[in-house]
Design brief:
By secondary structure, the chain is α+β, with helices and mostly antiparallel strands. About 50% of the residues lie in helices and about 20% in strands. It is built from eight helices and 14 strands. A hairpin with a 2-residue loop joins strand 1 and strand 2. The longest helix is centred in the first third of the chain and has 49 residues. It is found in: Membrane. This is histidine kinase.
């Protein structure tokens, strides 16, 4: 079960890059806006200053009166900017010399600029002063110009629109680059994930995939964990093997002593007690053995060690091991293998599954009957079929009996732990196969088939 995901590194990195790009785009837009406004105003001020200077140059005193020859070039220069309208006024100490009488000079000394409203329209204004040298002394003459800002506003808006377009384009370019950068940045993580994910359950080799320096501690931690896990699994396997030996050997010894005691006891009530003790020992021995078998199966199915298996040879070996137990009940144990069959799997697990099925068949068969192990395959699947002449499965069928510690309702008095079919079913499923179980179509007894993918 994997830990719940909390956020995405790629999304977080992209959001950070896009956030930075958005801030940068806004800052650049504000800078361009400020520069455009200042440049537009500075350009208009320079034109106004040049026009005012040209007009002051035409002011002269003739025959005791101020004469002004308004220069055409000055008005042409002012009106050439997007059809701007211009207002002017020339004042002397005696009052208005020429121009618009409602255009008052700006307060202050020297050349001064201001933005104001004239006749209800926003204007950029300038007032410049010049002193005429006369015999009576210097005569101050003031020129005031006012120019509408429509053209300048349109130019400013065009520059702002261009800046906004460039800012948007920059943001989109950065977004694309951020996506590429995020993908490249998490590339080592994806490669490490694939390197580990491709491994089988038994592959506990150290991770050697090249990673950036920032990920080296993570890889080191993974390798350390895998080393510890490998040691732990080895210890678990050794423990199961040792436990099987230490549990089965004392129980076998106790059973032998109980059988010797049974031969020596003469009273029937004592012999019945010893028989009950032998039965309990058998049940304990079988339960302990199958519990250890099931633990071993559970362990090895997670760490399969596949190899090519000759099912015919494995069947013969397993039958020979169980033949003494079958002969004790005068049961004929036979192998029928008309065709060879091979599979790829864990030999220990497959043999354990077959041994448990054969053990059940012998245990639930009537004395002086037969148990047959048939090996065949159809190209795709190889099958080990065990058929007995015993009590068979109960009316509910065999499906419920593949669960742990499940036993049939018709096996009262027979020693068992309810793990035989569980072990067999888990083994075949771990190998990509399936288990078939049911009663014989003709005659008494049961039929259990282990199906494995054939080579």
């Amino acid at each position: 079960m994997s830990a719940p995901a909390r956020g995405s590194i790629r999304r977080r990195l992209m959001l950070q890059l896009l956030g930075g790009a958005a801030v940068l785009a806004v800052v650049l837009f504000l800078i361009v806006q400020s520069l455009a406004r200042n440049l537009a105003q500075e350009s208009q001020d320079n034109i106004l200053a040049a026009a005012a200077s040209a007009m002051l140059d035409t002011v002269a005193m003739q025959e005791g009166e101020l004469q002004v020859d308004l220069p055409y070039a000055a008005f042409s220069m002012l009106s050439s900017l997007q059809g701007e309208r211009v207002f002017y006024a020339i004042h002397a100490p005696s009052g208005l010399v020429t121009g618009y009488d409602d255009l008052a000079p700006l307060a202050g000394a020297g050349t001064r600029f201001a933005t104001g409203v004239h006749r209800g329209e926003p204007m950029r204004m300038i007032t410049a002063t010049r002193r005429l040298a006369l015999e009576q002394g210097a005569l101050p003459v003031t020129v005031t110009l006012a120019q509408t800002r429509d053209g300048q506003s349109r130019i400013f808006e065009q520059i702002i629109a261009m800046a906004a377009t460039l800012g948007t384009g920059l943001f989109l370019c950065v977004a694309v680059l951020a996506g590429l950068a995020a993908r490249t940045s998490i590339g080592p993580i994806l490669r490490l994930t694939q390197s580990v994910d491709r491994r089988g359950p038994q592959d506990l080799r150290p991770v050697t995939a090249p990673v950036p320096a920032e990920m080296a501690p993570l890889v080191g931690a993974i390798n350390t964990f895998m080393d510890r896990l490998k040691v732990s699994l080895q210890r678990s396997e050794e423990f199961i093997a040792e436990a099987a030996h230490h549990v089965r050997t004392p129980l076998a010894t106790v059973r032998t002593q109980a059988e010797i005691t049974l031969r020596r006891v003469e009273k029937e009530e004592n012999r019945a007690s010893v028989r009950e003790m032998i039965r309990a020992i058998d049940e304990s021995s079988r339960a302990a053995g199958q519990l250890l078998d099931h633990a071993m199966v559970t362990f090895r199915t997670d760490h399969l060690e596949p190899e090519e298996i000759d099912l015919g040879q494995l069947a013969e070996e397993t039958v020979e091991r169980l033949r003494p137990m079958a002969e004790l009940r005068d049961i004929d144990l036979a192998v029928v293998a008309p065709v060879p069959a091979r599979i790829e799997g864990d030999r220990i697990l497959v043999q354990s599954a077959l041994r448990n099925v054969l053990d059940n068949a012998i245990k639930y068969s009537q004395p002086e009957s037969d148990v047959t192990l048939t090996l065949d395959h159809d190209g795709a699947m190889a099958r080990l079929q065990v058929r007995d002449r015993g009590i068979g499965f109960p009316e509910g069928g065999a499906a419920p009996l593949t669960g742990r510690f499940e036993r049939g309702t018709n096996v009262e008095g027979v020693v068992g732990s309810g793990l035989g079919l569980t072990i067999a079913e888990e083994v075949v499923r771990a190998h990509g196969g399936h288990l078939l179980a049911g009663n014989n179509e003709e005659g008494p007894g049961a039929c259990v088939t282990l199906c494995f993918p054939a080579l």
